[in-house]
Specification:
This protein has a four-stranded mixed beta sheet, with helices on one face. A four-stranded mixed beta sheet has the order 2-14-16-15. Strands 4-5-3-13 form a four-stranded mixed beta sheet. With 430 residues, it is of the alpha+beta class. The chain has helices at 22-31, 48-59, 86-89, 97-106, 126-134, 166-177, 192-203, 235-248, 263-271, 309-316, 337-341, 372-384, 395-400, 404-410, and strands spanning 2-7, 12-17, 35-42, 63-68, 71-75, 108-112, 138-142, 145-149, 158-160, 182-186, 207-209, 215-219, 224-230, 250-255, 275-278, 282-287, 295-297, 322-326, 346-350, 353-357, 366-368, 388-392, 414-419. The structure holds ligand EPZ. Ligand EPZ binds next to helix 1, helix 5, helix 6 and helix 12.
């Protein structure tokens, strides 16, 4: 197993380049299933969630060729099956996007219940089911398999989201693209990757309007044809490096970003005493003085993102005073605080609220990541802490962060990956 070893307490200086957005890539790759012809996708992040999805498509018969490190050609013309190997699907949350794409293409989908990050609590798909049912599909969930079938094409319909769901908005958008008639999604999610998916679909011949607002209109088209598309930069990866500089101190230019997408993060960090300068496609983050406490509640975009909550909570551990963090999206996303406690942090969690008492410094410790963003938060803690931090469970981090070790080393962090052989199983005596 791989672990990360960090010798913390060093401010960060230099430049870091941000990769393509994970959560856009994992929606755009399944969308390619509906395209007749070759899709060239650029700025694809090199992370394990993306390679798992590409392997799922390959198993289904897609022809996938690497053009260069960040660009692939996907041709799904020869895919004939509406299902894929279940064990691979269970590894990632985004496998549920295959439902919308396969229903659109074949009128049928058999997909394993999505896996992905487990930060406690249930990750329901009732809004996805509600949307597909409104569009004429019969959906059943049995033994961990979601089966959806429709006679002919899905039918355009109006779908009102009872909760603002990124996944359901994307899935219904996918299904509606090749449906008969017009679909309206009301109370839709507005995240940048929803706009990115709509732009991808439109560039392949779809008719999606209003993405980025809470009312999306999709007029079904007969077919999508190949083309090329470049994925937007990853808002959360950029935010993670911003938080790292805020916590460890220093001055870093974060390159290849869309500063507008980072506004919700920049505003909070500025309140905390961090200097942030927006340039055209990069930002400068600098922190030299003391961190100031703040309060934050996570919300759907353009609110403060839940996927930045663990990283920001970690930095707030070093802010003077008492900060209150409220998780407004997920039921239980504070499991990582037990690990921070091992480093001397003082956080009290009651249901969806964490009360953080600032401390003067963290102390390195052996800790374990339990999910992707918790893992990123623990890396930030390691960078801030005095002494050595050893992080277990880094597979989660590699699901969503491209070359994190290289990028952090490039801005002066002392971090390395080490391979530790699994302990041999002890044979019991007969
Ligand atoms: C996406 O998950 C992201 N994943 C998550 O990022 C992110 O935390 C989340 O959106 C919120 O921004 C991907 O894009 C692959 P939701 P998703 O449907 O789509 C409730 C990361 O770290 N809900 O927007 O699964 C749900 O319980 C990952 O990159 C229902 O009640 O999230 C939650 O409280 C982790 N019924 C809220 O809505 C449903 O049918 C938001 O979930 C669906 C969701």
């Amino acid at each position: 197993m791989t672990k990360y070893v960090i010798n913390g307490g060093k401010p960060l200086y230099g430049e870091v380049e941000i990769s393509g957005a994970k959560n856009a890539a994992v929606a755009i790759i399944p969308a390619a299933l509906m395209v007749e012809g070759v899709c060239r996708i650029e700025n694809l992040p090199n992370i394990s969630d993306v390679s798992t999805l590409l392997n799922i498509l390959k198993q289904m018969g897609a022809d996938i060729r690497a053009v260069n490190k960040r660009t692939i050609d996907i041709d799904c013309s020869r895919v004939r099956t509406p299902s894929a190997t279940f064990d691979m699907m269970q590894r990632i949350r985004a496998s549920y996007y295959l439902i919308g794409a396969l229903l659109g293409r074949f009128g049928r989908a058999d997909v394993a219940m999505p896996g992905g990050c487990n930060f406690g609590g249930v990750r329901p798909i009732d809004q996805h089911v509600k949307g597909f049912s409104a569009m004429g599909a019969k959906v059943s969930v049995r033994n961990g398999i979601v089966s959806a079938v429709t006679e002919g094409n899905l039918r355009g319909s109006t779908v009102y989201m009872d909760v603002v769901s990124v996944g359901a908005t994307i899935n219904i958008m996918l299904g509606a693209t090749l449906a008969d008639g017009v679909t309206y999604i009301e109370n839709a999610a507005r995240e940048p990757h929803i706009v990115d998916l709509a732009n991808f679909l439109n560039s392949m011949g779809a008719d999606v309007r209003g993405a980025g607002t809470s009312a999306i209109k999709i007029r079904g088209v007969k077919k999508l044809t190949g083309g090329f598309y470049s994925i937007i930069p990853d808002q959360i990866e950029a935010g993670t490096y911003m938080a790292a500089v805020a916590g460890a101190g220093g001055r870093v230019v974060i390159k290849d970003v869309i500063p507008k997408h980072l506004d919700c993060i920049s505003r909070k960090l500025r309140e905390m005493g961090v200097t942030i300068v927006d340039l055209e496609d990069s930002i400068i983050v600098e922190r030299t003085g003391a961190l100031i406490k703040t309060h934050v509640k996570t919300m759907p975009y353009p609110g403060f993102p839940t996927d930045m909550q663990p990283q920001l909570s970690t930095v707030l551990c070093l802010a003077e005073g008492t900060s209150i963090v409220t998780e407004g999206v997920w039921d239980n996303r504070f499991k990582f605080v037990d690990e921070l406690a091992k480093m001397g942090c003082s956080i009290r969690v009651t249901e969806r609220t964490a009360v953080i008492e600032g401390i003067s410094h963290m102390t390195g410790a052996p800790i374990k990541a339990g999910d992707l963003r918790a893992g990123a938060a623990l890396v930030i803690a390691g960078l801030c802490a005095r002494g050595e931090t050893i992080i277990d469970g880094v597979g989660y981090i590699e699901r969503g962060y491209e070359k994190m070790i290289e990028k952090l080393t490039g801005i002066g962090a002392d971090i390395k990956a080490i391979y530790v052989p699994d302990e041999p199983k002890v044979q019991k005596r007969a």
